[in-house]
């Protein structure tokens, strides 16, 4: 049962496929920028085409290309910022700011006892807030949310000095290295912490144990 919980969480949150899909359009942007004489517009076009191609591939396979859709929208927004400022390093500005905000929001959600991991998983499973009425599951979600805080904080710590120094090549390289590989590690570690934090007799995050008085 433990392994099933672990795999179910990874699959539910998108797994490596979704994380990889989301990282490819930004990489395509940098490739297009380099190939077409540092043209931000060309990079944006290449990134959008890359996202559309991945989306079609996923759709043909009967999968939901949600990660690609959000990634393409993020690329468009990031490209507009870079076009407006005329600085290609500003393509990474939205990501930097979003990681700052995400780290604060995830940490804050733990502090107020509404851990975002529980909110996300509970919503995807149609549980609404039933998981929160399970003390053991609430505690487990709080513990398992910390890896998500850590991944966002790590990106901020790495990207901030590179952005300030306009290190576009390093930003692009580490954008890939700290996107889907780090996301996969975060999901796996979070899933491991979630099941370790639950009592041995708990049925798992798919089955909150709600006290009769609270049901």
TrEMBL record:
Keywords: Membrane, Transmembrane, Transmembrane helix. Pfam families: DUF3159. The chain crosses the membrane at residues 35-60, 67-84, 104-125, 137-154, 174-194. This is DUF3159 domain-containing protein.
């Amino acid at each position: 049962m433990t392994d099933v919980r672990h795999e179910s969480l990874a699959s539910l949150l998108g797994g490596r496929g979704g994380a990889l899909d989301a990282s490819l359009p930004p990489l395509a942007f940098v490739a297009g920028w380099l190939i077409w004489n540092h043209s931000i517009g060309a990079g944006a076009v290449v990134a959008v085409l890359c996202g559309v191609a991945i989306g079609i591939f996923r759709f043909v396979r009967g999968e939901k290309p949600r990660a690609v859709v959000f990634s393409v929208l993020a690329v468009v927004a990031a490209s507009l910022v870079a076009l407006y400022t005329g600085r290609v390093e500003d393509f990474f500005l939205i990501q930097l700011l979003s990681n700052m905000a995400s780290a604060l929001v995830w940490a804050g959600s733990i502090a107020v006892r509404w851990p975002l991991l529980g909110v996300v998983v509970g919503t995807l499973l149609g549980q609404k807030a039933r998981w929160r009425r399970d003390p053991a599951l609430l505690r487990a979600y709080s513990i398992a949310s910390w890896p998500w805080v850590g991944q966002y904080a790590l990106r901020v710590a790495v990207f901030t000095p590179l952005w300030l120094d306009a290190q576009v090549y390093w930003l692009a390289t580490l954008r890939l290295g700290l996107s889907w590989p780090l996301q996969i590690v975060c999901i796996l570690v979070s899933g491991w912490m979630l099941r370790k934090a639950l009592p041995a007799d708990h049925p798992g995050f798919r089955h909150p144990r709600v006290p009769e008085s609270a049901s």
